[in-house]
Design a protein that fits this description.
The complex is a heterodimer of chains A (374) and B (111).
Chain A lengths: L2 H5 L3 H6 L17 H13 L3 H9 L7 H34 L5 E3 H8 L12 E4 L5 H10 L3 E2 L8 H5 L2 E5 L5 E5 L5 H6 L9 E6 L2 E6 L1 H15 L5 H12 L5 H10 L3 H14 L7 H8 L4 H11 L5 H7 L7 H12 L3 H6 L5 H18 L1
Parallel strand pairs in A: 2-5
Antiparallel strand pairs in A: 1-2, 3-4, 4-5, 6-7
Helix pairs in contact in A: 4-5, 10-11, 10-12, 10-13, 11-13, 13-14, 16-19
Chain B lengths: L1 E2 L2 E4 L4 E5 L2 E5 L6 E3 L2 H8 L4 E2 H12 L3 H17 L3 E4 L18 E2 L2
Antiparallel strand pairs in B: 1-8, 2-6, 2-7, 3-4, 4-5
Helix pairs in contact in B: 2-3
The chains are: A alpha+beta (374), B alpha+beta (111).
Chain lengths: 374, 111
């Protein structure tokens, strides 16, 4: 018997589904020879599921020998050391923004680790994601730059990000990334989100004695769906687990999720994200939301948009150009295109290495044309 | 070897548990991992406690002589105090909840 047949073809999904109510995935029980163990540990690391594998071992669901257990603990300690460093950065970043008078919601990793998982150790993440209001966006960036962070990318024109961008990515002195969002995703779907909906409600959690604000459970589920379905070309397993956990959470009202998704023109996105998570993590339990998602038939236009987002390697420029259609006012569309076509001197000076924005716009238009032909 | 006064684990620490290992980081500090009896010490100091109380409890838990436990704890306590992971707590005269005070209130004496 080969190692592969022992541990199964979708090991990452089986690990990510561990402990989820209703999952029909079964973990290999072991014992594992050296090759099988390497494969299992690699799958756990790739799926950011080392914490779930450790819990499975502690529950007696998988049998590890002493050396394997030690290696798993060491691997997960590495992940958790990064996570506590990120939470340290999160708290100092929040302090900076609070001093600048900017209200913040914590998105994704830290928020979902503390609020949605059985133990925060189950959620591994690699950066921090914060949401601020569009009107506070420039002040927030200024405060974070003054605090010693630096920009990863530069906006083509002053004020562009606050009106059209998904986020500004800043690099902290520790080299960790801070994604400062004003909306959840790039491109047309991000521009259709009614941003005020993200601020109507919040849920708090505590990190090192500080009270932090996250989105409401409904907001977190929508955020997870958008990130999973259109943030990456392939939905990451950890985001799919977030989706299932939240969708099964009695605090989440499936009808409300659908109502808000419809307001954002995002029903197809949410349905696809829930349906894919349900299938990949093999959830047997049917909820009203999962039943709706699994039955949902997107329109041709929705299908085209999902296909556009699923294209791997799609550049941010191509996503930005596709967003033009979602900008309602003609004046804003004109500013948007003008900013891309004639970026500021500062922007051009800082993006020389990749041919600058004009070349990226040409590349982005090429990508859009290729997508349209498919 | 001894420490005087009451100590407790700082509520400002970032904490994750990985099996029998604790991953700890004081705010704006450096990450440290605790294992074995150091984890037991951290757990005992979730509430403010004196050296005598902690030594007595750990001695019972590990079946080790109190002197040996005290000798093993002092360097760990010193290290955690220096990292800001333990804080000194003044004994409250009225018996109410103690307040966190500066670490200077605690001294760790070594020969």
């Amino acid at each position: 018997m080969t190692a592969l047949s022992v541990v199964g073809p979708d090991l990452g999904a089986a690990l990510s589904a561990y402990g989820l109510r209703g999952s029909e995935h079964a973990l290999p029980t072991g014992p594992f020879d050296a090759a099988q163990w390497r494969q299992l540990l690699a799958a756990a690391e790739a799926a950011r599921a080392t914490g779930l594998l450790l819990t499975a071992a502690e529950d007696g669901a998988v049998a590890l020998d002493e050396e394997q257990h030690r290696a798993l603990v060491a691997a997960h300690v590495d992940r958790m050391a990064a996570v506590v460093a990120l939470e340290d950065l999160l708290l100092s970043t929040l302090e900076t923004l609070e001093q600048a008078g900017v209200e913040v919601r914590v998105l994704k990793g830290s928020a979902t680790a503390h609020l949605d998982h059985a133990a925060p150790e189950h959620r591994v993440y690699g950066d921090i994601d914060l949401l601020v209001r569009s009107c506070d966006f420039d002040d927030a960036v200024t405060a974070l730059l003054a605090a010693g962070n630096r920009r990863h990318y530069f906006p083509p024109r002053p004020g562009f990000e606050r009106r059209f961008a998904k986020c500004a990515t800043l690099l902290a002195p520790s080299r960790y990334e801070i994604d400062l969002h004003r909306t959840l995703v790039a491109g047309p779907a991000g521009l259709r989100i009614r941003l005020d909906d993200l601020w109507t409600d919040s849920e708090t959690f505590t990190v090192a004695g500080r009270t932090l604000h996250a989105l409401s459970p409904t907001g977190r589920l929508l955020s997870a769906c958008y990130s999973a379905e259109i943030g990456d070309s392939t939905p990451p397993l950890w985001a799919q687990r977030d989706i299932v956990q939240l969708a099964l959470d009695p605090r989440v009202n499936g009808r409300e999720v659908r109502r808000v998704a419809a307001r954002w023109g995002g029903e197809a996105i949410v349905a696809a994200a829930v349906a894919q998570a349900w299938r990949r993590l093999r959830i047997g339990d049917i909820t009203a939301l999962s039943a709706w998602a699994l039955r949902y038939h997107p329109t041709h236009e929705q299908e085209a948009e999902l296909a556009f987002y699923r294209r791997s390697g799609l550049s941010e420029t191509a996503r930005s150009l596709a967003a033009v259609r979602a900008i309602p006012r003609q004046r804003d569309r004109a500013y948007f295109l003008l900013a891309l076509a004639f970026p500021s001197k500062e922007y051009l000076a800082r993006t020389k290495h990749d041919g600058g924005l004009p070349r990226r716009v040409v590349r982005g238009l090429g990508e859009l044309r290729r997508t349209a032909r498919r | 070897m001894s420490w005087s006064g009451l100590l407790r684990a700082t509520p400002d620490a970032l904490v994750r548990r990985v099996g029998s290992v604790l991953v700890l980081r004081p705010l704006y500090g450096e990450t440290v991992c605790l294992s074995g009896p150091a984890v037991a010490l951290w757990e005992e100091l979730a509430e403010a406690a004196s050296q005598r109380d902690v030594v007595e409890r750990l001695s019972g838990r590990y079946g080790t002589a109190p002197d040996e436990v005290a000798a093993a704890l002092v360097p760990v306590v010193q290290d955690l105090l220096a990292r800001g992971l333990l804080v000194a707590v003044p004994a409250h005269p009225t018996g109410g909840s103690p307040e966190v005070a500066g670490a200077a209130l605690v001294s760790v004496a070594t020969p």
